[in-house]
Amino acid sequence: MVAEEKRVIVPRIDVAHNEKDTGLRISVNLAGAPKEGVELEMGKEGFCLKAEAERFKYETCFMLAHRVKHQEAKAKFESGLLSIDVPFEETMHGYKVPIE
């Protein structure tokens, strides 16, 4: 019997600066996937993610706007939500553009 190939879904990803503006807080919706099926690879400029559920799988790679200290990343998985906290490589302060 031939195994049916699972449908691939790109998960919803939200990225924001943390409260102290020292790093990023990344949230990834992986509803239906168990913790044991989640794989995360973090780099200085982005991350790749795979998660296997019973009938489908999540797969994506995501580029970040700021370089991060990927080796200091911390990830937590709870109720289908993967939360990743990672500090910036450098503190980012840009020019504030006046809004008319």
Per-chain topology:
Layout: E1 7-9, E2 13-17, E3 23-29, E4 38-42, E5 46-52, E6 56-63, E7 74-78, E8 81-87
Parallel strand pairs: 1-6
Antiparallel strand pairs: 2-3, 3-8, 4-5, 5-6, 7-8
Care to describe what's here?
With 100 residues, this protein is mainly beta. The protein has a single domain, classed as Immunoglobulin-like. 0% of the residues lie in helices and 47% in strands. It is built from no helices and 8 strands. It has a 4-stranded mixed β-sheet, with no helix packed on it. Strands 2-3-8-7 form a 4-stranded antiparallel β-sheet, with no helix packed on it. The protein is elongated. The mean pLDDT is 93.
The 3D shape can be described as elongated
Q: What's the rounded overall pLDDT mean?
A: 93
Fraction of helical residues: under 10%
Alpha-carbon Rg, integer = 16 Å
Major sheet: size, sense and barrel closure? 4 strands, mixed
Could you say what the CATH architecture is?
Sandwich
Question: How many DSSP-defined strands?
Answer: 8
Head-to-tail CA distance between termini: 65 Å
Number of domains in the coordinates? Answer: 1
Count every helix, treating DSSP H or I runs of 4 or more residues as helices: 0
> Which residue ranges are poorly predicted, with pLDDT under 50 across at least 5 consecutive positions?
none
CATH class: Mainly Beta
